[in-house]
Design goal:
CATH topology: Nuclear Transport Factor 2, Chain: A
Structural class: alpha+beta
CATH class: Alpha Beta
Helix content: 25-40%
Number of domains: 1
Strand content: 35-45%
Order of helices and strands: HHEEHEEEE
CATH architecture: Roll
Number of strands: 6
Largest sheet: 6 strands, mixed
């Protein structure tokens, strides 16, 4: 079961844009991630490599944690809002819920719930 401080440190890494480092620091070696109903991806090293590919495919990714967050025993839920800016300047916004199962102070399983059509709609410029 994670303590609140570990959970908050994980969130802070993601909000700071260090998504790959958050995986490195807070996931078990055999961790899995699953997008909606897709098959899970497994292994922390694979998860880090995939996250770095995603990060490199955008000019920037802005991340916000929308509270409250939930921690109950070994399970947590985080509501994330991401704004992805493409290398061409196009922005897209995505909101998701991440449901996580922790083993001690590391995430063993994570599943993301979101509507993938969000990524098809460009966000108007500021």
């Amino acid at each position: 079961m994670p303590d609140r401080m570990s959970f908050e440190r994980f969130i802070a890494e993601v909000v700071a844009g260090r998504h790959d480092l958050a995986i490195e620091l807070f996931y078990t070696p055999d961790a899995s991630m699953q997008e909606n109903f897709d098959p899970p991806r497994k292994g922390r090293d694979n998860l880090i490599a995939r996250e770095r590919q995603v990060m490199a495919s955008f000019k920037s990714i802005r991340t916000e944690c929308v509270g409250p967050t939930f921690l109950s025993g070994d399970h947590t839920v985080v509501r994330w809002v991401f704004e992805f800016e493409g290398h061409d300047g196009t922005k897209r916004r995505m909101e998701e819920l991440a449901y996580q199962r922790w083993e001690g102070d590391r995430i063993a399983e994570e599943r993301f719930y979101y509507d993938p059509t969000q990524l098809l709609v460009a966000v108007p410029g500021e």
